[in-house]
Amino acid sequence: MSRRRRRPGATFVSPRPRAEPAARKDRRNRRQAPRGRGGSIARHHWQALRSAMHRLVKTPLATLMTVMVIAVALSLPAALQIVVKNAHAVSGNLEHKAQISLFLRQRVTEGQARELQQQLAERSEIVAVEFISRQQALEEFRSLSEFGSALDTLGENPLPHVLLVYPRVDQHDTEQLETLRADLAALPQVELAQLDLAWLQRLFAIIEILQRSVAFISLFLTFAVILVVANTIRLMSQNYREEIEVFKLVGASDAYVRRPFLYSGLLYGFAGGLLALLMVLLATLWLSGPVNELARLYHSDYRLQGLDWRDGLTLLVTGLLLGFGGSWAAVSRYLRELQL
Amino acid sequence: MIRFEHVRKRYPGGHEALKNVSFRLDSGEMAFLTGHSGAGKSTLLKLIALIERPSHGSIWVNQRNLARLHPRDIPGHRRRLGIIFQNPTLLFDRSVYENTAVPLRIAGCPEAETARRVRAALDQVGLLDKERLNPVALSGGEQQRLGIARAIVAKPEVILADEPTGNLDPVLSREIMQLFQRLNQVGVTTLIASHDLDLIREFPNRQLTLARGELVGDRS
Ligand SMILES: Nc1ncnc2c1ncn2[C@@H]1O[C@H](COP(=O)(O)OP(=O)(O)O)[C@@H](O)[C@H]1O
Ligand SMILES: [Mg+2]
To answer: What is the mean pLDDT of residues B181-201?
Structure first.
C-alpha cells in the first residue's frame, strides 16, 4: 500500500518508522494464528460441547422436561417393539408349529414310506419330515382314546402310514404353504394332505397388524421428537440472540454459531434415549416376574424377552440422530432469518 | 486500504442512505466520518463490514472487492476487521476476560496465546485489573473500552467505530479518541463515525463529511 499517497497536510503524530516493525509483527502473529488446524477444530468442538452443556445446565427444569418428553416419545415405540418381539417368541418355533400331514395310501409299504420321507426331507422348502407308521399311530390312538379297545374288534389296523412334513415358514406368505400342500397331495403315494392354516394365518395377521402399528407409532413419535427438539432449540437460539449476533459480527461462521446448538440437540437426544432405555428396562424387569410365573403355570419355559444390546444401541442412536436433526432444522432456520 | 467507488445504498422501502459515495482511505490511515444524524455514517460502516450490501458501486478492502466476496468468506472478512458499536454489544453472561476473548475463540486460538492476547488488549484499554468482573460492574466508559479491547484483540487490519463516544462525557470521549490514535500508530487503518464535531476538532486526523447520503467534505 503506497504510503506516499498520504495527505501532506496530515499532521499525524504516528512516526512511521515505529509503525513499520509493529505492522510486521502483526503479520507474523496472524500467520501464527491458524497454527495446527486440527488443534483448532478440536478446540472448537470442545468449546461447543462445553457451551452446550453449560446452556442445558443453566435451565435445569426446562432441560429436564425436554429430556422427559423425548424419553417418553422414544420409550413407547421401544416398548411396543418388545411386545412384537414377544409375540414372535410366543408363536415360537413356527417351523414346528406349521405342519402338513400326509396320509399315505394303504398300498404304500413302510419301506416305500421311508423312501418318500427321505426324498421330501431333501427338498429345500421342507425343514424336516417325521414318519409315523400305522402301528405307531394305532398304539398312540389306543393310549389316547377310549375307543382303543374298539379298534381291536376291527381285527385289522385301519390307519395309514403318516408323514408329518414341517415346511419352512415365511411369515408374510402362507400361500406358499398352500402351494406346497397341493404339490404334496398330488404325489401318487399320498391319499390326503392336510394343512391347518387358519390359526397360523390368524397369528400372522395379528403380528402384522402389531408390526404396522409399531411402525406407524414410531414414525409419528419420531416426528414428535424432532419437533420437540426443534422447538426447544428455537427458543434457546432466541435466548442467545445477542450472543449469536456478536459472534457473527466478530467473524463467526454459521457452522461455529450452529455448533453449540447441535451439541445441545445431541445431548437432549442422548439423554432422552438413555432415559427411555432405563424406563423400558425397568418396565420389562417389573413385568418379567409375573410373566414368567404365568408361563410356569402353563408348563412353558417361555421367558419375557426384553431389549438386547442392539435395541439399546438403536434407541440411543435414534435419540442422537433426532436430537441432531431437530436442532439442525431449528438453528439453520434461525440463522437464515437473522440474515447477518 | 478502504476504497469506495460510486457506492449507493438504497434500503428496502426506497430510502437512499448513500448516494454515489467515492473515497479512499490508505492503509494505516485514520479518519473521522462526520455528519448529522441520518447522514449515512452507520450505513457506510455496515457496508464495509458486509452487514449491508451496496445497491450499486464497489467497495474494496485491502485489495478485496467485497461485491465479489462469496458468502462463505464473509466471516473471514469480518475477522480482519475490528468493529466497535455505539452500544458496546457485550455479553453479560461472562466475564470481562471472556468478552474480550470471543474473537480469539472463534479463530480457534490456543489457550495460552488467547490469555496472552486478551491481557495485552485489556492492558491497552486499562482494564487489566477488571478481567474477572462481569461487564455489568463496569462504568459506561469502561464498557466502551471493553468493546474496543474485543475489537483489537485479534489484531485487525481495519478498525471501524460507530459513535464510540456517543454515551460518554467529554473527558472520557477524549480518552477514547486518544486510545484510537495510539492503536492507529501501529498501522491499523481506522475509520471512526462521530457526529461530535467539537471533539473531532481537537484531533488532527482526516475528516470525511456526509450529508444526506452524499460525501460533501474531505478535509485533512
Ligand atoms: N435498516 C434500514 N432500513 C431502512 N432505512 C434505514 C435503515 N438503516 C438506516 N436507514 C436510513 O438510512 C439513513 C441513514 O442512516 P444511518 O446510516 O444510520 O445514519 P447515521 O448513522 O449517519 O445516523 C437514515 O435516514 C435512516 O433512516
Ligand atoms: Mg449511526
So the answer is: 91
pTM of the complete model: 0.73
| Chain B residues whose beta carbon lies within 8 Å of the beta carbon of residue A14 | 28, 184-185
Does the pLDDT at position A20 exceed 50?
no
Residue-wise pLDDT for B24-76, tens only, equals 999 999 999 999 999 999 999 999 999 999 999 999 998 889 988 898 999 99
Give the mean pLDDT of A176-190: 88
**B residues 108..137 contacting A (CB < 8 A):** 108-110, 113
Spatial distance between the Cα atoms of B67 and B101, rounded to a whole number of angstroms:
30
**Cα–Cα dist A277/A298, whole Å:** 30
Helices (H), chain A: 16-32, 37-58, 60-91, 110-121, 134-144, 148-154, 175-185, 198-239, 241-249, 254-297, 309-338
On whether any CB of chain B is under 8 Å from the CB of A27, the answer is no
Give A 211-250 residues with CB within 8 A of chain B: 242-243, 245-250
Q: Contacts of residue A45 in chain B, CB cutoff 8 Å? A: none
DSSP A18-81: HHHHHHHHHHHHHHHTT--HHHHHHHHHHHHHHHHHHHHHHSHHHHHHHHHHHHHHHHHHHHHH
Q: Which residues on adjacent β-strands are paired with residue B21? A: B7
- Evaluated on CA atoms B103, B106, B107, B113, the torsion sign reads positive
Residue closest by Cα to atom 14 of ligand 1 = B40
Cβ pair B40, B210 in contact under 8 A: yes
Q: Give residues 47 to 76 of A whose Cβ lies within 8 Å of B.
A: 47
Cell numbers representing residue B115 in the block: 490469555
> pLDDT tier at A287 (50, 70, 90 boundaries)?
confident
For residue B97, what pLDDT is reported? 97
Report the sign of the C-alpha dihedral through residues A75, A76, A77, A79, in that order.
positive
pLDDT tens for each residue of A312-340: 899 999 999 999 999 999 999 999 888 77
Q: State yes or no: ipTM above 0.90.
A: yes
A-chain residue closest to B182, CA distance = A14
For an interface test with A, give the residue of B100, B182, B185 to mutate (most A CBs within 10 A): B185
